[in-house]
Amino acid sequence: MRSGSIQPAHLTWQPTLLGDPGRAPAFDPSFTNARRIALDKAAWVDQVTGWVHGADTLFEHVVAHAPWEHRTVRMYDRMVEEPRLTAWYGRALDDPSVPAIFAEMAAALCGRYGRAFDAVGAALYRDGRDSVAWHADRIDPAIVEPVVAIVSLGSARTLRMRPRERRDPQGRSHAFPLLPGDLLVMGGTAGRTWEHSVPKVARAGARVSLQFRHST
Which CATH class is domain 27-70+78-214? Predict the structure, then answer.
């Protein structure tokens, strides 16, 4: 269930020390800083530090204009509010109400990963108490080796990943600290065989996670 569209208030965050206030958002279409991490023989993650320039400006725009909602979900025998806000841009990426840079990012991601990224969602972690528990995304069985691209804006947070098979004898898990403007791309079988989470922390400023997905 969802509540109506809301406007976040009283957010605290620290702009990047090397940021340029008011700088128009841009990104690196050549993915210069890309580094691939193999999770296992078939699952991988690409991490691209500093992919977005002017990340502070984009963060402020998304916080102010995204169609934020506060979802209520079932947990065991009761309904609880998710400890974060979410937004879904349910229009074509070339719609005037969607930031133009989203379509540009989607095109660059398509050129690199061979997927037609046609949808963008967002999550707002208002402070360290906001989080998302271990989970795997719901993926259409018809999609072969889905690719999900996450752009991190605002304050730093850590995304963690672990195998869905919790009895993994190697006990593998990975922590990916994400700074403002970083890009994290999950591919191969990662979407189906690995879980991810953003755990609670004692103290953190507001962060936005932009998620680019494809439907085919």
Answer: mainly beta
